[in-house]
Every structure is written in C-alpha cells, then in structure tokens.
Design brief:
The structure is a single chain. The chain is mainly alpha-helical and about 450 residues long. The chain has a domain of about 80 residues. Helices cover about 60% and strands about 5% of the residues. The protein has 21 helices and 3 strands. A 3-stranded antiparallel β-sheet has the order 1-2-3. Helix 6 packs antiparallel against helix 7, helix 9 runs antiparallel to helix 11 and helix 18 packs antiparallel against helix 19. The N and C termini lie far apart (about 55 Å).
C-alpha cells in the first residue's frame, strides 16, 4: 500500500492438496506506483500493492502534429518479452473475446505494464480485455477481483471495497481479495478493518506475507518498533520463501526500511540496500530510496540512480528535485516535462497523482498555496505517511499550519511514530488533544 505495499496471498480454491503453482496474480495498492505481480507459490498468489494509475479519461482536443518527423513518444522495444507476449495474447483474444481465462491473463499483463512503464493507458486496455464481463450481479469472481484492482488504481476505493467484499463472500479463502482490502483500508487509515483483513490471510497461510501485512498496519498504530522486529524475524525465518519469490522479498525488505526510516533507526540505509540487491529496478523501491537519499542531502546519488528512468512520472519528479538541489542544467527541462505531464493528466480527468503534483507545486514551482490545495484534496482520498508529510509541508509553507490539523488528529489518534512528521506537526495548528477526561466524581476532600 501506498507507500506501504502489501503482498497478496491467494489460495487456489481448487488446489486442496496445496500443490505448488506457477502463475501470475495481480493486486494494486495505494501510493506512488501501480500494481505489481508476484508469482504464485504453494497455492498462494503474492503481489505488492502500490499505485500509479489513471482515473477515467475525459475528452480533450486531439493533438495534431505539425510535421511528420515529430517524435510523439518512445515506446518499449519490440523485443521486450512482456510486450511481445501481450501482443500475441491480444491477437488471440480478438478472435474470441469471451475466452475468460485469456482475458484475465491479458488484463494482468496490462496492469503489470502500467506499473513498469508508468503508463496508465495499459489500465484502460485491461478494462477492455474484461469488457465482456461488466460489473454486475453475475460478474465472475476472478474478473470482479481484477476490476476491483483497476477501481483501486483509479482511487475509487469505495467501488473497489464493494467489489472485493463480493469476492470474499463468494470465495472466503481468496487471500488476494483479503490483501487488497487490507491495502485499501490502510490507505484510508481504517486500521481496524485492515488488521481484520490481514488476519484472514494469516488464517490461510503462515509466513512472510501475513506477517508483513499485519506489521505494516501495526507500524502506524503505536507499535512501530514491534512491527519492525516482527518483519526482521520473519525475513530471517522465512528466508527460503523470500528467495523463492523475489517480489515478496523486496516488498518485505522495503516495508522494513520504511518503518526503520520513520523511527530514525540506523539500519534504514542497509535495509534499503538489501531490498535493492533483490530488485534494483522496482519503481516503488526506487522512489522510496530516492526520497531517503534526498532527505540525507545526497542528491547526486539520486541523479545517478534515476538518470535513465524518466518515463515514470514519480521517478522523474525525484530526479528533478535532485537536479534542482545540485543546480544541474537538466532541471529546467525536466521541470517543464513534469508540468506538461500534470497538465495532460488534468485534461484526461485524472486525479490520482495529487500527492506528486503537490510536491511538484511546492518544491519545484514554489507555489505553496496551490500545493496546499492539492495536498488537502489528496488527504481526503488517502492518508498514509507520505500524504501526511506533503500536507504538513505545504500548510507550513503557505503560512496556514492549521490547514494540516487533520494530520495532527491522525498522528495523535493512531499513535503514529514518525519523528519527521512530529517535527512538522509541531510548527503550528489549532489541534489540542485532550490531556484528561472529564469525570462525574467529585474531587476528594482536601
């Protein structure tokens, strides 16, 4: 989820013997990056959840190139294995639109491409693959689950929850649906519901996935040191599981690094590096690691890390921040690119990139009032540490610290342990938590 990411555990209901399976499942979460896929092992589908997706597209005036030689976009090479497989399956699917098994595979691959390429158009293609089975009373559960993933990616959390609740009613052992529910509930700061969802996963299987699912939520409810220790122990005890499924391992290592970072734990850097050794191309991990480097005033390392990763908007944002910090001549061009991308996103009616756009407005355009509007709108939708940080930063920069009082309430009511957020929250506002409870008893006699 969100910055935090959940793997997904999904027992194959037809696999009562628990035979090992090798297939792909999908889950999307909330945060900066879209869905990622994790292979199924021992009947369990494991998938990270973080989001970079697109909302429904609004009509805009078409762009007509002024000359034939104008480069509109550079697309992945034709030799890319995932792209080639997807094209081949799409060609087959066009001949039989109601092949539900193939449609599911195409939709999963499309969502994976959206994550890897930072291209929300693949989510629309996933929807097209599932078009013969629209949302309704008779939608097959596997399709309903994928549609819930897409709804979640578009920040239609209520729609996603409704679909997922239908899935778990029909298939109560669907770990994938339970984990997606946990992701959505955590993003909305509904931690009681999220822990219940993680508990359902734990009832299906023991191991790294349910541990990290639960620990991720515990880390935001006053138990961050315990949560970090739980993941650390599980990584050691379940090392074979993490090695067998690198996507699961990198998710767990990244979750531990983020918790350590919020605690100011000296193990933070090593934990990020451990995750990078598993998968140094994971977009979510690269974003979180870059943020940590920027906070440590190490922007040149960010430039070296992200210099060739400008296709994914959140990574381009961090690259531009690093370039600005070093006075690089590349900064102006990348800031202009980001401005165009955010404008195009608005023309398409998208609203899921508000957190990133708020950071862009505050730190690169130096428009705190606009950043505050974006950050408040974002907080209305999702409430995770990164969302809290940009709202606090924007409110303080705009001279309106009280505008971030909802974050102060969230910090206080949930016992969130984050030294950086606490410092930002201490700079003002009107939130004053009760220090004592009223009582009906008369005071004792002096």
């Amino acid at each position: 989820m969100g910055p935090s990411r959940f793997p997904l555990t999904n027992r194959n209901e037809n696999d009562h013997a628990g035979a090992a399976l090798q297939s792909s499942l999908t889950i999307c979460g909330t945060g900066l990056f879209p869905c990622r896929f994790i292979s199924v092992r021992h009947g369990l589908g494991l998938c990270l959840v973080a989001l970079l997706a697109a909302a429904p597209v609004a009509k805009a005036a078409p762009f007509i190139p002024a000359e034939d030689g104008l480069v509109l976009e550079r697309v992945p090479g034709a030799r890319d294995a995932s792209s080639r497989a997807l094209r081949e399956m799409n060609a087959v699917l066009t001949q039989n639109r109601r092949d539900i098994g193939l449609a599911e595979k195409v939709a999963r691959l499309d969502i994976d491409q959206a994550r890897k390429l930072g291209d929300p158009r693949f989510l629309g293609r996933a929807e097209a693959a599932l078009a013969p089975w629209p949302l309704g009373a008779d939608t097959p559960a596997p399709v309903l689950l994928l549609r819930a993933v897409i709804l979640q990616s578009n920040h239609d959390f209520e729609g996603s929850i409704a679909a997922l609740q239908r899935v778990v009613r029909a298939e109560p052992k669907s770990g994938q649906a339970w984990l997606t529910l946990a992701a959505v509930h955590q993003a909305q700061a509904d931690y009681t519901a999220g822990l219940h969802d993680c508990g359902q996963i734990a009832s299906l299987v023991l191991g790294l996935a349910p541990t990290v699912c639960t620990a991720s939520i515990m880390s935001l409810t006053g138990h961050a040191p315990l949560a970090l220790r739980a993941i650390t122990i599980s990584l050691a005890q379940d090392a074979d599981e993490a090695r067998a499924d690198p996507s699961l391992g990198v998710w767990a290592e990244t979750a531990a690094a983020e918790i350590a970072e919020r605690l100011g734990d000296p193990s933070t850097e090593q934990r990020y590096r451990d995750a990078l050794t598993i998968d140094g191309s994971d977009p979510y991990l690269l974003g979180a690691w870059s943020d940590w480097l920027l906070d440590q005033n190490r922007p040149r390392e960010v430039m070296a890390l992200l210099g060739d990763r400008t296709r994914v908007d959140p990574l381009l944002l961090r690259l531009a921040l690093a370039e600005q910090a070093t006075g690089s001549s590349q900064a102006a061009g990348h800031i202009g690119d980001l401005a165009e991308r955010f404008e195009a996103s608005r023309l398409r009616g998208e609203t899921v990139h508000r957190r990133e756009e708020a950071r862009f407005a505050l730190h690169l355009q130096h428009q705190p009032a606009r950043a505050l509007d974006l950050a408040r709108a974002n907080w209305d939708v999702q409430r995770e540490p990164a969302d809290a940080r940009i709202l606090l930063e924007a409110a303080n920069a705009a001279g309106r610290p009280e505008a971030a009082d909802p974050v102060r309430v969230w910090l206080h009511d949930n016992g969130v342990e984050d030294a950086r957020l606490s410092a930002l929250a201490a700079k003002g506002g009107n939130f004053a938590p009760l220090t004592s409870q009223p009582t009906d008893q008369a005071p004792p006699n002096e």
